[in-house]
Amino acid sequence: MAEEVSKEVAASKSVKVEPRALSAAKPEPLQQANMPLLRIEGVAKKFGSFRAVDRVSLDVAAGEFFALLGPSGCGKTTLLRMLAGFETPDEGRILLDGKDIAQVLPHERPVNMMFQNYALFPHLNVRDNIAFGLRRAGMAKAEIDTRVAEMVALVKLDGLEKRKPDQLSGGQRQRVALARSLARRPQVLLLDEPLAALDKKLRGSTQLELMELQRRLGMTFIIVTHDQEEAMTVASRIGVMDAGRLDQVATPRELYEAPLSRWIAEFIGEVNLFDGQVETREHNRIVVSTRDAGAITVAEPRNPVTKTTVSVAIRPEKVKLSRRGPVSDGAGGGAINRLEGVVTDVSYLGGLTVYKVRLDSGAVVRSSIANTARIDIDAYSLSQRVVAWFTPDDCLVLEQ
């Protein structure tokens, strides 16, 4: 923590703080209409022989809430630290509003970072923690008082100004750290796993508050997280990282419904996967012969399938269950995919019931069914034989 507190101190030095009202704190207009606020060009970083970030390129627009998502060790935090100035790229450029900041010191760039453990000063109360960076920047006392009052109201800490961090809950400490990070009005706010220390229920409510705050300020937020649900909830776009590379950048819906690889399909949510060989292509449909599920008919994707060895992906909510199964897809094609098996597990989750069905081949298919009625008369029981079915449009062919 001492290291991160010292970084917060360093980041607060030599920053010119403008006495504008918070409601007017909008990103400055870009010199070129189509130019992103932040542009990362071929950035790479090595630690010894280990390549933590491998030539990553990315554009982030002004006012965007962007998430860097990936497993531990994928390079997302290293990339965030390069944006903050705590690490220097070995290759590439980082352009903020058209200016290369890759070599600019942390306290000289209009970027601020909120650390995972908040890095609050334990001997300072809420007010003084928020005011610390403003004092270091040389702001007048009256302006500091006004700015701190704005921040306290913004993050709903009224009445807690005199408390020290050890007198606050985890959620309240998170708000103090957020207020301190916002007080200097950076062009870009970087958030390193900001909600990781909160319990599940508090994390959910805080996500919504963070989204509302970002929309109200019109500020660019970049969040690093390993939590897929969190990234899908808060971000307008997500960059999925693995082994130092940026594998896909897309909206949450695009990532979930059209992942570019088998790995991304597995990483984002739950998915049923069947490996097989492309057998035929006709009438905008592909037939894939799989070992565990037989022949599966899939709608032809927008991008042509060039390989013969593929995986078929079906999300659990797309898999319906019935005692006999439908006879056609309603479009005259009769191409509904039917898989027969036995229910081996039933998990009631309130809004959903998740079923696991063991097919005759031994493979297991997951089906998530919404509980739309208070008493579900169509519920299936353990050991019951059922038909799991889905249409060609419910499937996705993945070449990787």
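(the above was protein one; protein two follows)
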Amino acid sequence: MNRLTASFWFSLGLAVIVLLCDGCRRRPTALTYIPGHSRSVTNEMAGLMDDGTRIPQPPGTGANDLTRGRTDTGPIPLPDRALRENMNEDREYFKNQTVYFDFDKAAVRASERHKVQAVADALKKRPEASVEVEGHCDERGTEEYNRSLGERRALSIREYLVLLGISSERIFTVSFGEDKPAVPGHNEAAWSKNRRGEFILLTPKP
């Protein structure tokens, strides 16, 4: 083996060693979650609230099934949309129970759970009534993404109502995305009020 060939193989081997060491140094030691994306989805799919605590659930109900729209007996029944057209709306009845969300998240915050509980308690006292949950977003993000996020927020509240004992057939959901801001403005003061879920009391028309 001449000197040129030996030098070539020595240089190649050195380069391989450097690359391997560099790869070891760059290997992440833990998963990096993107706020509002991977972590929130993981929590929701695991049946956890936004603070990481488990959603309270009645006996025989799996949290994973509920977040996917299923129970032990099958899919959660959907309400009949045709009935929605024959109901009166009361937007003031649950006005104080509006649920607010963190940026880019759909999990109900621990500080907001008492509002969903209040809605559930009221519906239990009025078995003839139903409710519509509206999902809303702030202006950041694309229109399509915000529509999807608003839907996830509405469904998150709906699933929590189901966990609290309200029949899913009494809960309608709709997403408006960023189309109906509660507060005009382009700052956090406005955005924090626009990331919300609103409850509309529905009663049968005479």
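Reviewer note on protein two: The radius of gyration is 25 Å.
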